[in-house]
């Protein structure tokens, strides 16, 4: 048998990766992906929780893909601006969204003129992290426990209890409504457009309290500016082990959280989505990245594509029911 010439042998060796990729079912278009920097859109400003997640995961994802990942902060409208930008972008796997519960699950039933349809225009790749919420009050408030707070709220003889929110249609907004319904008192949501304005109002005592993320609550409590009464998590937070859950307090239905999922436009090749899922899971499970996310107050997940889609469908149904029950319309 004659041996192939050296150029011929090199050609055959060079073909091995392509043959392997074909065996895995990758179409030709996906074999060269990513061939340019990825853009990860975030609907909130730099320094916020979503931005922290995007930058930590994006940095590790860039290492794994050997391609730059650019975080694109498109703040405004509760994440809707960023969501729309990705929903309408080319389905080539280079434009991604770090979507969250507000713009994906709450906005569709709450806003009749939403400029995108997440169920039809976006596909979930992996749920990266979750952030639970904590009911906080000003440090000078007389309520030392959730029981004290609820007792005072129900004793207001029909007067509504002012609770701050980080915007109409956000998880904290509907969390306040849930609490009032479950505990039997009237709530008056006070909507703030800027996180800083809401925090200032809570600290100053302009409102009775608010639902804030675990990460934000932990920092404010440590700084002596807020007092935590209960958390929406299934178990106590490692950041605040002294704070009981609502379930412990006899209100198990107060169990909502903010989840963060990476999305791509519908029509993105399945092979690219599968590769992205594997690398995103690897990114959040990287020991250093995982530790930083946990320190920031997030529960680290990293789910499969199937589990992500299952979660998204369940959350869409759940929040649609919550929105209907409150009668809220954002437009």
UniProtKB/TrEMBL annotation:
<dbReference type="Pfam" id="PF03401">
    <property type="entry name" value="TctC"/>
</dbReference>
<dbReference type="InterPro" id="IPR042100">
    <property type="entry name" value="Bug_dom1"/>
</dbReference>
<dbReference type="InterPro" id="IPR005064">
    <property type="entry name" value="BUG"/>
</dbReference>
<protein>
    <submittedName>
        <fullName>Tripartite tricarboxylate transporter substrate-binding protein</fullName>
    </submittedName>
</protein>
<keyword id="KW-0732">Signal</keyword>
<dbReference type="InterPro" id="IPR006311">
    <property type="entry name" value="TAT_signal"/>
</dbReference>
<feature type="signal peptide">
    <location>
        <begin position="1"/>
        <end position="30"/>
    </location>
</feature>
<comment type="similarity">
    <text>Belongs to the UPF0065 (bug) family.</text>
</comment>
